[in-house]
Design a protein that fits this description.
The protein is built from 4 helices and no strands. The protein is mostly helical and about 120 residues long.
């Protein structure tokens, strides 16, 4: 599933090309950039600049930090429920990411402690 919308309100050949490449993902953008450099280097450079500027080059790392927003439905009870549920899910996601970070740190520490112990055993022998 592409990280960017497949359709746009504005139409034109460049917009259609962008949407077509977005549907095919990052490899399509990279191939287009390489072909741009091969056939006409300013085109490849322009594609590279656009990919970096639009964050297509490095994925959507900022997307995980963005807060979800949806317009009001007009039903205040549903809107309150949705907002509460989204906040709870964001909190759970943050807790899970923190948990994974602690697991990585514990694994790194255990591996380092084992390395130091093995190193000490070799020095004693």
């Amino acid at each position: 599933m592409p990280a960017y919308p497949a359709t746009s309100r504005v139409s034109g050949p460049l917009i259609r090309a962008r949407d077509w490449l977005d549907e095919r993902g990052k490899p399509a953008w990279i191939i287009a950039m390489i072909l741009g450099f091969v056939f006409f280097w300013p085109l490849g450079l322009a594609l590279l600049a656009y990919m970096i500027w639009s964050k297509r080059m490095f994925g959507c790392s900022a997307r995980t930090r963005a807060r979800y927003y949806a317009p009001s439905t007009g039903n205040s009870a549903f809107d309150a429920y949705r907002e509460e549920t989204l906040k709870r899910l964001e909190d759970e996601h943050r807790e899970f990411v923190d948990f994974l970070q602690k697991l990585r740190e514990a694994k790194d520490k255990a591996e380092f402690d084992q390395f130091m112990q093995n190193r000490g055993d070799k020095a004693d022998a």
